[in-house]
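If your schedule permits, I should be very grateful for your opinion on a structural question. I would ask you to consider whether the tokens describe a fold that such a sequence might reasonably adopt. Thank you for your consideration; the sequence and its tokens are set out here.
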Amino acid sequence: MSQYPLHLYSTLPTISAPFSILGSSAILYIISRSKDKLSTTLNRLLVGLCVADLIFSFPFLFSKAIIKFEDRTRTDADGVIESYKYPGTTNWTACETQGFLISFGAGLSILYNIYLCIYYVCVIKLNYSVTKIKKKVEPFLHATPYMFLLISMIVTVATKSINPERGYCYISEYRPKDCESGDCYRGSFVWVLRIFTIVNMIVAFVAITGMMTVIYLQVSRQERRMRNAGYRSTNAARAAGNESNMIAGRQSQAQANNASSGLLRQNVTNSRKVLNQGLAYAGAFLATWFFFIYFAITKLAGGDPKAVETLDLLSSFFNPLQGKSQTALIHLHCIGG
């Protein structure tokens, strides 16, 4: 039996979801009012991320109307009959729709966070030109999330793996009342999908952390080369016309100034600004999904059931908050844009 009232699992995300919706909407408004609008790869990726957050957060608003708790009984080891609450739904179509949108939005949000980091790697580490990113990198960043997730969601729906789970509908098992055979049991394929989801989340966590570390080290090396060359400020380097050469690494000054080289002459000042922006967006993702990742690792490791349940409750509140976490970055985004 749960150590917490089950209604908390539907109440907490219902409270946090509106803040995420407002945060994502605010970022979309900022982008729509900016001079660049959708003309830059970064803005287009941020729009994709905000749309993913909205798809993920919006269905939580209806949890109270979709989820109901049934009174059931069971016999314990001593033969004593005890009653307990079991999550059910008022409408299966609404439940499956909610679970589909939550699962799809969560996956989309995770992938767009990874792809934002890939964008920053292309800008700072690989020093790609705007044209090269737009033509050779960006189409992949927008196409693959939808293709991958649509296939995975078709499998999820076909295996009847979207069911009521505590406070909302998600990928879970469900046994109807008085169900005694496997014919009425829903979600027998859930364990595969859950392991797949948890592994993807852990991989995303490692990938984002790794890419931001690579970017940080790259900018640190750039700044160290500046100091070794005798420039205490990036303004002095720009005045001397040497900064682009230092950042281009193995390029000569002539190559760095040659537009046909296809490289973006990224100055150190802008690299630091882009790095801070990337760290902020990655930090919002890691902070939002921290409890879920911790919960997943603890559960896979067979941790204390009470600790697992506490982490599950915390993750149900924090998971929809990525849009809200990003409102703290609106000012930074305006400066960066």
Observations:
- The chain has a mean pLDDT of 77.
- Residues 104 and 153 are 7 Å apart (CA to CA).
- Residues 190-228 form the longest helix (39 residues).
